[in-house]
Write a structure and sequence with these properties.
Elements (H helix, E strand, L loop, with lengths): L6 E5 L7 H17 L4 E5 L3 H6 L5 E5 L2 E5 L1
Parallel strand pairs: 1-2
Antiparallel strand pairs: 3-4
């Protein structure tokens, strides 16, 4: 009750962009999170440039016997 929502959820928002604009927008998005009060974000991305632009991350990747969590 009466608590503010401070999480962002983004699913493949950068996928339709060309590599140059995808990198620029990913870097800008990461800086916007703190500026607009988001304390956490769940970003689904399948390209390394978007993943690498996020400041702190927990990656879930396909492993030989299922998904593996990397941090």
């Amino acid at each position: 009750r009466c608590s503010s929502w401070s999480s962002a959820f983004v699913d493949e928002a950068f996928a339709a962009l060309d590599p140059v604009n995808r990198r620029k927008l990913a870097a800008h998005f990461a800086s916007m999170l703190g500026r607009y009060g988001f304390r956490s974000a769940l970003v689904t991305a399948h390209t390394a440039d978007v993943v690498e632009a996020m400041p702190g991350r927990i990656e879930v990747v396909a492993g030989e016997h299922g998904s593996v969590v990397k941090s």
